[in-house]
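Reopening: structure tokens for the nicotinamide-adenine-dinucleotide complex, inputs below.
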Amino acid sequence: MRFLNKNVLVAGGAGFIGSNLVSQLVKEEANVIVLDNLFTGDLDNIDCLDQITFIKGSVEDEKLVDQLVCKVDIVFNLAVRNIIVSTKSPKLDFNVNAGGMFNILMSARKHNIERVVFSSSASIYGNPLYLPINEIDRTNILNPYAASKLTGENYCFAFYETYNLPISIVRYSNVYGIKQNPENPYCGVISRFLNDAIEEKDIHIHGDGDQTRDFTYVEDVVEATLLAAHSPKAIGEVFNVGSGRETYINDLAKIIIDTCGNHTKIVHIDRRDIDNIRRRVLNIEKIRKTLRWIPKTNLQTGIVKTYEWLSEQKNKNKHSKLSINTKTFAVAH
Ligand SMILES: NC(=O)c1ccc[n+]([C@@H]2O[C@H](COP(=O)([O-])OP(=O)(O)OC[C@H]3O[C@@H](n4cnc5c(N)ncnc54)[C@H](O)[C@@H]3O)[C@@H](O)[C@H]2O)c1
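Re-run output (same inputs, fresh job):
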């Protein structure tokens, strides 16, 4: 057990990826504290709430961050204001995504933390010059969200180089899977499409659907993040976390309709300002070679798992939560 009796802080641990990470850490018998202001997170996501300590608060709160960081060995920072809100209020986004990371690093340095893991995003690559994208390729910042994630990364590197603070960075491509709630208007495209297909509503694709993304199942992302926290080889390093496979959004919609086995139609609508990334697929050789990580769940299997989970949630909440009709979703996370 890699995290047996380790004291761990998960900022953003009530969110989609954070809550999946928390479940695995609890399985590995870590003592987990979650710091989350429930901006997009939900306590219902944390299935082991009685086995962790939950603190409702913000990573912007320097004092609170320090009080929590001083109690732990490892910090995972997944707290985020996502791409859609950040485009509307870049200052708040800067405070949380960059400022929150900065606060964690300041405290981690003070308390000699064993490892800080930052969950970054492939958004920092923008429209790449070449595919698949390598970690050392140029960044291309197309929105405030990407700017704040890159700033968070840069501070991690600065603290590693200057103060020898053991940091690791994982750059996720589009993540999907269980606990990604389609009720959240910023949810991923898979969750959104699945929700519509299950409800036999048309699937709306912004633009021509020939844009591509690299989709990774959340369990694989959690494992990559844990390896980044555990392996000495990950210190001072950044790793792409993706499937290494490029998927057209049109093809994704078809797989989802096949999975749901109904007569949902695909409808193309106007592209949005935030959909300014045409193609994306990550090169995952570095994490494969260094940390021996490869994604285990292929897209079809991951979609079936997510479909089963979402259908079960819908049955549970038939007349409440998940009966929704939002028309916004994030492709370019
Ligand atoms: N989901 C993806 O496809 C994807 C892709 C690339 C990178 N990421 C990164 O992974 C991380 C987790 O993303 P997610 O998809 O689980 O998002 P999410 O919105 O489900 O989770 C983010 C969590 O952060 C919390 N939060 C927001 N502001 C906070 C604050 N000020 N203080 C404390 N907590 C706060 C939210 O309440 C939520 O629980 C983020 O850092 C994101 O940038 C996600």
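DSSP finds ten helices and 13 strands in the chain. Residues 11-12, 14-18, 35-41, 58-60, 78-82, 96, 100, 119, 121, 149, 172, 174-175, 188, 333 surround nicotinamide-adenine-dinucleotide (CB under 6 Å). Marking as resolved unless the reporter disagrees.
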